[in-house]
Automatic annotation (TrEMBL):
It comes from Flavobacterium cerinum. This is Uncharacterized protein.
Length: 140
């Protein structure tokens, strides 16, 4: 299986707009040893101090399916009000099977939902970030 590049450009979180009311904000972080996908709900009062390369992206709350919005309001995803982050090692970050195994192992914990629709959203977010970084790397 071909592995993705773990060489990511540097991004900074603009703490003046994260979290922003009405948006769900996600941040992918690459540290020296581990990677993490963090989630901020619109009402989060704490933004963690982050180290490493970062890519932040947001989804407007009203654009998410109703079931997803309801789930996001009830459960933390990867980071919410001090819970998390959900760590993805370099090995897991680079293989689809590793991502599925990690998600499966956390399905019964507070860090991920049991709802299949929300798990699907999570996988799509991870896929978006990997695709985004690979595209940026090729453009350099």
């Amino acid at each position: 299986m071909k592995r993705c590049s773990t060489s990511l450009p540097d991004y900074q979180i603009n703490t003046s707009i994260v979290p922003k009311q009405g948006w769900y904000t996600f941040c992918f972080i690459r540290g020296s040893e581990d990677n993490a996908l963090l989630f901020f709900n619109p009402d989060a009062s704490v933004v963690p101090k982050l180290k490493g390369s970062q890519c932040t992206f947001a989804i407007k709350e009203e654009l998410l399916p109703k079931q997803v919005r309801e789930g996001l309001s009830q459960y933390p995803l990867f980071y919410q009000d001090g819970n998390g982050p959900f760590i993805i090692s370099k090995q897991e970050f680079c293989t689809v099977s590793g991502l599925f195994e990690k998600l499966t192992s956390h399905m019964s914990t507070a860090y991920i939902y049991k709802d299949q629709l929300l798990i699907n959203l999570t996988l799509q977010l991870i896929h978006f970030v990997i695709k985004h970084f690979v595209k940026l790397k090729k453009a350099e």
